[in-house]
Amino acid sequence: MSNRIQIFDTTLRDGEQVPGCGLSKKEKIIIAKALEELGVDIIEAGFPISSPGDFEAVKAVSKEVGDVTVCALSRAVEKDIECAAEALKYAKRPRIHTGIGTSDQHVFTKIRTTREDILERAKGCVRYARKFVGDVEFYAEDAGRTDNEFLAQVVEAVIKEGATVVNIPDTTGYCLPEEYGKKIKYLIDNVKGIENAIISTHCHNDLGLSTANSIEAIKNGARQIECTINGIGERAGNTSLEEVVMILKKHHWLNFETGINTRQIYPISQLVSTTMNMPVQPNKAIVGSNAFAHSSGIHQDGVIKNRDNYEIIDPEEVGVNESSIILTARSGRAALNFRIGKLGVQLSKDQLEHVYQRFLQVADRVTVVNDAELKNLVSKYLITNVNF
């Protein structure tokens, strides 16, 4: 089994479903090109049947990107599939992503039919999609809550019909990592012909487990992760691309690799945040403004002495210029001296102590001491040492 993990980005489809995050055709093209530069394997560009605008956007993205696979979503409906195929006709590597709900919750209360009917519809949508493209991904919606035996039956049937990828979504973000991992392992062990398709994850973050579930699935045999930049998506969002990519990169013992140029992570995070009007929470892993910021004196002292004491990622690995030593009332002398040194000022031990006592008074008043306030502190009390 290959250790190369396919990164399937659905920022332009699932991410765009966030209220207020709709994108124009031009904006989709800009983000798609950035995703291609980032190194994703598949871009899910949209849901063509949903609106004329989305149809045109998928069509435009198909024309603009190069070797990356362009994917379009559809329901298990022939008209949907035809529309997706038409939108993808200019793509060098087209993929139709079609499927249907498989959990009893969806079968009996949403679709209001039988398992037997679901099985036939699943086979039918893949069979029909294969008339238009050679790369067909089938999604078993709400697979996380689907009985494993029935899920295996559906997956085996759609692979026989020609599905090249089978997507096992934890649609509601309900599964625990161990549970989701076992579901993937069950499919590996019980589906005839599973070696003929890639198993994909598509995890939502309703319980904060999307990243953990995706990693557990990879460890159990999945080889594609569906994710979004900054983890945006329906409700609490999707698996965060930057999180899974950096987990696989930093945990070498897992022995997995992706094609992502990690130095492009922070720039595209900022692009998506700005374009989609979706701020990144400051403490967001990898790309948050505080991800490489230190304000505790104990942490600051450790980082100044050796970055590895408190940072497992070099900021430059993800496109961030450097770590930030934030001066607050919790900062110590080491951090203060470090920041003063950045201003080109060298202090003796006694001078530093004098400035530090004055610094604490300022820090209690302003919360964060910026460079202007720091310069004022140094210039006022140690004029002879200042050389700005």
From TrEMBL:
<dbReference type="InterPro" id="IPR000891">
    <property type="entry name" value="PYR_CT"/>
</dbReference>
<dbReference type="Pfam" id="PF00682">
    <property type="entry name" value="HMGL-like"/>
</dbReference>
<feature type="domain" description="Pyruvate carboxyltransferase">
    <location>
        <begin position="5"/>
        <end position="266"/>
    </location>
</feature>
<dbReference type="InterPro" id="IPR050073">
    <property type="entry name" value="2-IPM_HCS-like"/>
</dbReference>
<comment type="pathway">
    <text>Amino-acid biosynthesis; L-leucine biosynthesis; L-leucine from 3-methyl-2-oxobutanoate: step 1/4.</text>
</comment>
<dbReference type="Pfam" id="PF22617">
    <property type="entry name" value="HCS_D2"/>
</dbReference>
<keyword id="KW-0100">Branched-chain amino acid biosynthesis</keyword>
<dbReference type="InterPro" id="IPR002034">
    <property type="entry name" value="AIPM/Hcit_synth_CS"/>
</dbReference>
<comment type="similarity">
    <text>Belongs to the alpha-IPM synthase/homocitrate synthase family. LeuA type 1 subfamily.</text>
</comment>
<keyword id="KW-0464">Manganese</keyword>
<dbReference type="GO" id="GO:0003852">
    <property type="term" value="F:2-isopropylmalate synthase activity"/>
</dbReference>
<keyword id="KW-0028">Amino-acid biosynthesis</keyword>
<keyword id="KW-0012">Acyltransferase</keyword>
<dbReference type="InterPro" id="IPR054691">
    <property type="entry name" value="LeuA/HCS_post-cat"/>
</dbReference>
<dbReference type="InterPro" id="IPR013785">
    <property type="entry name" value="Aldolase_TIM"/>
</dbReference>
<keyword id="KW-0808">Transferase</keyword>
<protein>
    <recommendedName>
        <fullName>2-isopropylmalate synthase</fullName>
        <ecNumber>2.3.3.13</ecNumber>
    </recommendedName>
</protein>
<dbReference type="GO" id="GO:0009098">
    <property type="term" value="P:L-leucine biosynthetic process"/>
</dbReference>
<keyword id="KW-0432">Leucine biosynthesis</keyword>
